[in-house]
Amino acid sequence: MATNVPLSGARLWDSLMEMAKIGGTAKGGCNRQTLTDLDSEGRHLLQRWAEAAGCTMSVDRVGNMVLTRPGRDPSRKAVAFGSHLDTQPTGGKFDGILGVLAGLEILRAVHEAGVETEAPLMLINWTNEEGARFSPPMMGSGAAMGIFTEEEVLAKQDPEGKVFGEELARIGWKGAADPAALRDIGAYLELHIEQGKLLEDAGKDIGVVTKALAQNWLEVTVEGEEAHGGSPMAGRRDALMAAAPLIAAIERIALGAVSASGEPGRATVGRLTVYPDSRNIAPSRIWFSVDTRHGDPDLLAKMAEEIRAEATAIAAARGVRITVADFWYSPLTPFDPVLVGRVRDAAERLGYPHMDMPTGIGHDAVYVARRVPTTMIFCPCHGGLSHNEAESITPEWAEAGMRVLADAVLATAGIAKD
């Protein structure tokens, strides 16, 4: 579909490098956190580029940027694509940014060729995908798709007590459009780096993303009793020594939750707090987070059951109290089979080695898929490294992803014929 449109891999790469200068770090990454002055600067650059490619911009009340090129048939729903420009504090140049600037390259190429699509084309930069400064992540797409209310998003505070809505207004990106209007787009496609190494290990250029894994996040509290570090070990009710075998069991449970296709579960303990946090006191209280994910919702539920059973057994054996509380759940999210097929066909037609795969990571596309036909495209990243200043991809991988995205987008929007 995109063979006659002058897509430029070199221009895409140049744009990625130019955007990376905004918030660039000494180690070669980016620190362009949401609703900062640097975020505003990046948004203005994207606006200038997109308007030069014939787009008009609207901004909604949670700051989502929408850059639209009209189609010939105004009754057709827009075909949207994009991702996010915000980064982690020690983020890379490509996470999110690739999807936005690959979409920009499509708009530039269509504009230069004078091509008219039947449906409008729409590039979206979602607000606060990362959740690094304001938690939780994916607030812009979540508010647009009704996962969060506008009121709760605008009231969120960062660790310094600054309020989301006030910071959005301060940097000049609080718009007037209704974010719920984005539920009416006709399709959404998102290109992203894999943030894993399956594609690189398999020697594939393109990941055809078929679904998002179900996620179940828990919070565990272990309550014991403080004891002097010089006291006898016998009889201690050390909360940390009870937490340690439970954490080890969580990894074992995930690896043992193997689906019919041979895929095990995934589990991460990413945060842990110790009280009273003294070198010579056996802790009386431990709190830690548990992030579990699986492509089989039944096995995901079984993982939670086994974690709770293990906690009960350890608590009884060690004389402590362990509470396992539900924190957040995201259901298994299949992507639209028609759009998935278009991505697969595009990769095949363009000669790129590809494979079907799920995403185990949250993206704006996962929230959008609850309301709108959606799919994702992955390209490799070196070593699977992401959320890291050393995150890297090749220009060839970026171009392959962009060309597959363009082909699927234009096949969905339709090229107007005189």
UniProtKB/TrEMBL annotation:
Keyword Metal-binding appears in the UniProt entry: yes
InterPro entries in alphabetical order: Amidase_Cbmase (IPR010158), Bact_exopeptidase_dim_dom (IPR036264), Peptidase_M20 (IPR002933)
GO function term, MF aspect, one: hydrolase activity, acting on carbon-nitrogen (but not peptide) bonds, in linear amidines
Ribonucleoprotein among keywords: no
Pfam families cross-referenced by the UniProt entry: Peptidase_M20 (PF01546)
PANTHER family according to UniProt: ALLANTOATE AMIDOHYDROLASE (PTHR32494:SF5), ALLANTOATE DEIMINASE-RELATED (PTHR32494)
Protein name, UniProt field: Zn-dependent hydrolase
